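Supplementary material to the annual report.
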Amino acid sequence: CTQLTAQRQLDSTIKSTNPIIPIHKQNLLKNIDVIANMQWSLNNYFQDGKYQQSKFENDQFRLEIRGKITDRVSFRFRDRYTKVTEPGSLDNLSRSTDIASITINLAKKWDLTMGKMCADWGGYEFDANPIDIYEYNDIVEYSDNFLTGAMISYTANQQHQFTFQLMNSRTQTFEEIYDSIPGVTPSKFPVAANINWRGTMAGGKFQTIWSYSQFLEAQNRTMYYIALGNQLKLNKFLFQYDFKWSNEQLDRKGIVGSFVPKSILPYAPQNTRYVEHWLHVNFQPQKKLNFFIIGMVSNAYWYGNPDPNKDNHLRTAWGVIPGVEYFPFKDLDNLKFFCTYVGRFYKYSDYAKRTFGDVDTNTGRVSIGFICPLLIL
Amino acid sequence: CTQLTAQRQLDSTIKSTNPIIPIHKQNLLKNIDVIANMQWSLNNYFQDGKYQQSKFENDQFRLEIRGKITDRVSFRFRDRYTKVTEPGSLDNLSRSTDIASITINLAKKWDLTMGKMCADWGGYEFDANPIDIYEYNDIVEYSDNFLTGAMISYTANQQHQFTFQLMNSRTQTFEEIYDSIPGVTPSKFPVAANINWRGTMAGGKFQTIWSYSQFLEAQNRTMYYIALGNQLKLNKFLFQYDFKWSNEQLDRKGIVGSFVPKSILPYAPQNTRYVEHWLHVNFQPQKKLNFFIIGMVSNAYWYGNPDPNKDNHLRTAWGVIPGVEYFPFKDLDNLKFFCTYVGRFYKYSDYAKRTFGDVDTNTGRVSIGFICPLLIL
Amino acid sequence: CTQLTAQRQLDSTIKSTNPIIPIHKQNLLKNIDVIANMQWSLNNYFQDGKYQQSKFENDQFRLEIRGKITDRVSFRFRDRYTKVTEPGSLDNLSRSTDIASITINLAKKWDLTMGKMCADWGGYEFDANPIDIYEYNDIVEYSDNFLTGAMISYTANQQHQFTFQLMNSRTQTFEEIYDSIPGVTPSKFPVAANINWRGTMAGGKFQTIWSYSQFLEAQNRTMYYIALGNQLKLNKFLFQYDFKWSNEQLDRKGIVGSFVPKSILPYAPQNTRYVEHWLHVNFQPQKKLNFFIIGMVSNAYWYGNPDPNKDNHLRTAWGVIPGVEYFPFKDLDNLKFFCTYVGRFYKYSDYAKRTFGDVDTNTGRVSIGFICPLLIL
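Predicted assembly:
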């Protein structure tokens, strides 16, 4: 009777009854995981070789709830505590919420996911748990990675899976991202389509995550994105290599836009391109120890520059991330301490320097901290 | 000893000890539900018959935790991820938090609820889980529905329950809602009182949720609200009819205020009235299928208009929502897919058109998506 | 296979498998607590003896998850729903998140905590669960109490524990707190160090929480803080006495800064000091009833005032909080109803009145409500 009185806007279809922890609840408790995804560190920052500052930072804190609700329905929710929480102007969900989706098993091999979800872009860099990334290369860093829509998955067999997504192409309105651009009309349905192949070959030694995407950014303005992720496992070595290519009829990343002074071009540039390589090598001589090095490069081009003397290539951004990870616990083998250096080197073309006044620069970060996806329930 | 070290601001009255899942915890696990209330859809918008735009939207995402703590104490918490989170300036709780309350069983038939809660207004439209509503009529849409205060419930028997609430009349200060109005002084205790009767008659075939409320908005400025909800179940048919009447000495809804140009009246109007009818018919020919149609109308009046040639009646807003719902799962029978049309038609009186320049308009929305109050733990 | 399809950015190191509630999960369920920390009341406010206003308020709502993950790792998370959620500009975590940390048992008697945590300042006032505090004295009220960093604990024995913390000295940047101050350069590593002793003597009758801290606020500008908390238990009586002393080379609390008109000093004052006494007496004649009175005083000094005729002592703020608490439930013995008066009396020195135009004032609050750290899972 307390129950009856207390509740309004109750959904009468949900009830929990009977003996101590009924079977239904036991199944949920077994199948649902609650995870605190954490990355914490003491970060020491450098600019052009000069020490700038140090601070303790909660680099990542993402609370996650996921699992199977019934044999055919599963759920995933992930929310950040390191991001502003106002709802996206296009998709209506808090910008801090990465994922809020359900997945329905339609038939043998076929699944349907609906809600806000990871855009299923290929590449091992993006597919990793974000807490395992010390710094993203430019494309992933400046993308809207969590989009609202639907996904169909076809799992051909244990070796090959294919997904197809249809989503909003962004979380915010055209006006919020681009303001206005002469001659460009916002699209009535800013939609993104993505196909993805995950393959496992050679008994798991070689794996791939390849994808192709198209984003309608405005009427007659599309973004084309290819990501080819490849992984090779050899004994104590793990190699991951991603190739990424983003052709943007409107400069969605805003990187080229940031090179050009507002006095020369007061709105977002058109016809930009970003081409990236990302290589990650792990050497794990024993269970408790991992050495890694990441090398990455991002090239930025502006083909839409009206200047007849232009050089399309404006900038090359290099990145190098060597480090070591230590896993102290056998019974919690995903908790690791790390020590890493993140170096970024930004080199502009002579044309960009001369015409736009851009200046080469580099940044560094020495970090020591811990990472864990902590299963708390 | 880890425990001892780790914790500060610990409440020493809470401890979990002993064998694997102690009885106390088992009881909690049995009695507490964690629910993800979701509505997601692809929405296609029309304005005055013309297609405007399409987008995927997370229409609703409200996380809920509720249940019995002990035999005499229960708890309810519900928080939206589709709303700004800054604390209410009057009640101090995040505006995204609908409910944060405890209910204490005082005696047989008597319960006391304290905290932020649903205002216990009558009417089946408001009493439904919000995820089951495709569009609210004007009164509910523009009300502060979740208020802080206390509620006494008296459950006479299985057929009749009465509640009495005393709450803040809003979540924000007078100044934030009304700015300032000449001749109107904010109240020192902006309080709302509400009485509600929930009745069940004819063996459950006929049910009611009737309520009467008074809101003190400012000194000598009260809002009176009557809502009479009635429900009839006949085999495969369900009929719900709500009558709502809101008499506002200060225009709390702001609807009439939005009709009048600021150049004619620079602050909130006084003595407005809203009168509404809402009819909902369900026809469920079989367990997995439901057809529904909702018809609604909202009339807006301004009795406080100083114009001697006034017409009190300024606008009639019509709404029609036909649709179909499909329940694919036997073991998750509250998950449904839906396809619906939401049409709204706004017709102004000749006086409003002539004097205030208001123009008739209509909007449409075609939506396809899913709804579920997903029990996740 | 639903699982496989649904998830991206999965951490493959987390899986839940096998029979209904596997042992690992049972251990988590046993050891992890989910707590809703609530304080709710009807507050009636007075200013200089004159009634101002009444309102229901959710004074406190902090959701907490904490417990042991494995024998050597524990976790704590606490988040407020009564505070803005934007991430701290220095520590990157939501300002509403008090605590997000893990504790690792390094060795017998030694533990290491990392993340955002309670600054381990001494004093019983700060060490209490915030829901048990009706009003803080000035130092705790105006401090950044939840900071990011690391803590080492040494538990000598059941009677004595020592902790050492190294943390950011704030959650926000220098510029956000102080704007700019002529002659003051922000520190490159704004760090705080804290040592704390918790002692238990005389068979638990006498206990202490003493601490000493240093905060680097800017280059050559340090804050020194001493807090000495002492507790005596005698039958039905509990006495707690805190002495607090904060010497601030930059006025971190901003209290002295608020006394001085911007026209006299347009930026934060230097060399301020706050000295406080806090006495709390509980008399619990029976299990269900507690009478308490808190007396507190806070003295504010400005030694850095350039005026040759200055009086260093600018203000004395008195506080008195008498009240009664009633515990209705045997099986939920931390849920209490309370009725309390909070009186604050602010008396300025003649110098402050004459030179800065400060005026004596007092405020009152009569509150009735409930408090509970509700174990919900």
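The longest strand of chain C covers residues 50-68.
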